[in-house]
Design a protein that fits this description.
The chain is built from eleven helices and 15 strands. It is α/β, with parallel strands linked by helices.
Length: 366
């Protein structure tokens, strides 16, 4: 009898414990954000350069027409493949609610020696990829944007092999893989290091950085990206065998103010945002030396003036100049556009780019 009572008690205790576990299910600490919005074409992407409330695209109001955000979070810092950087908690979930996909940017620290070392080390490459895939899984990223620049030309094939390896591994996780490449030129470290045609086999999209026509290191002043130069670089890139449907066209949301002692050509440049350029035009327009000229081939405005014994000049990027450039993406049936970087622009830019994007979608359906 005692034995029967003991058995009944054991059964009852097991039942109560079981009910308790059903009533309070264990929480999933690795719960993923809501499903990503579908990727529409043409793509409109922008880079977010820092984690600051003023540029946090996941928390700010929805940007018209924007479909992809690329926060600049990660960089390879060690020759053995150490990746530094961190995602902002909850960013992906908030971005998804606004209709954005999230493709964080990863750099090589723009260090050619560091890059050479990890491109020659299979273990380092595996370590890099494992870290990136873990971050993607933890934070629910939709893709990865690789921004490897300043690479020795001798590492061209090794870079292509690395991207092929990354492609095989990232594809298993369903991630979109994109890579930023400079416009074609003769520069070995900044252009000839990319086998653009081969790279397209390992990525969903190549992002063509069609800006820095005249970089900050230039000895002569000039535009960041004139329309005619941009078109030429798109044509050269396509001629290298890059499929247009895999190419994103880079847009600059900035320009450079060039300054030199009056009467000399010793120019130095600093970066200028669009709103800063508008303010300069407003402040300097009454100077007797002020000149503002529309350039029909470049499809942008050249602004110059002399003040305090110094000459100043800049080629203005604004909503109109970007609208013309964005039309190249439609004309050449590209996958879309990518803009560097959020926070430089004036609000009217996004409305005009949205119009251009809709026209591009309509053109692709015809």
């Amino acid at each position: 009898m005692r034995k029967i009572s003991f058995l009944l008690g054991l059964v009852l205790l097991t039942f109560v414990i079981g009910m308790g576990s059903c009533a309070t299910p264990k929480k999933d600490s690795q719960a993923k954000p809501q499903p990503a919005p579908s990727l529409t074409h043409p793509i409109s992407m922008v880079w977010q350069h820092k984690d600051d409330p003023s540029v946090d695209l996941s928390s700010l109001p929805k940007v018209p027409g924007l479909t992809v955000v690329s926060p600049c979070w990660y960089r390879v810092t060690g020759e053995y493949g150490k990746v530094e950087g961190a995602a902002v908690p909850g960013y992906t979930e908030r971005a998804h609610k606004k209709g954005y996909q999230v493709w964080p940017l990863v750099t090589n620290s723009f260090d050619p020696d560091l890059t050479h070392k990890f491109l020659q080390d299979p273990h380092a490459q595996r370590f890099i990829i494992d870290q990136l895939l873990k971050e993607a899984e933890t934070h629910g990223f939709d893709g990865i944007n690789i921004d490897f620049e300043n690479i020795y030309e001798k590492d061209r094939d090794a870079l292509t092999s690395f991207m092929a390896y990354l492609r095989r591994q990232s594809q298993k996780k369903g991630l979109i893989l994109s890579m930023d490449v400079t416009a074609p030129s003769r520069n070995p470290n900044w252009s000839r290091c990319y086998d653009r045609k081969a790279l397209t086999k390992s990525v969903d999209y190549l992002v063509l950085m069609t800006y820095d026509q005249f970089s900050q290191l230039s000895k002569v002043p000039g535009p960041t990206a004139s329309f005619n130069w941009d078109e030429k670089k798109v044509q050269e890139t396509l001629a290298q065998g890059v499929p247009p449907e895999k190419l994103l066209f880079g847009l600059p949301l900035y320009m450079r103010l060039w300054e030199a002692p009056e009467g000399t050509k010793e120019y130095r440049a600093r970066t200028l945002g669009m709103w800063q350029a508008q303010q300069l035009i407003h402040d300097k327009k009454n100077l007797p030396t002020f000149r503002k000229t529309w350039l029909p081939e470049e499809k942008m405005t050249r602004v110059s003036y002399t003040e305090g014994g110094r000459d100043y000049v800049f080629w203005q990027e604004d909503a109109l100049s970007l609208y013309y450039k964005s039309r190249l993406a439609i004309q050449y049936q590209l996958a879309g556009t990518a803009a560097w970087r959020y926070g430089f622009e004036t609000p009217d830019v996004w409305h005009l780019l949205e119009i251009s994007q809709k026209n591009g979608a309509h053109a692709s359906q015809q």
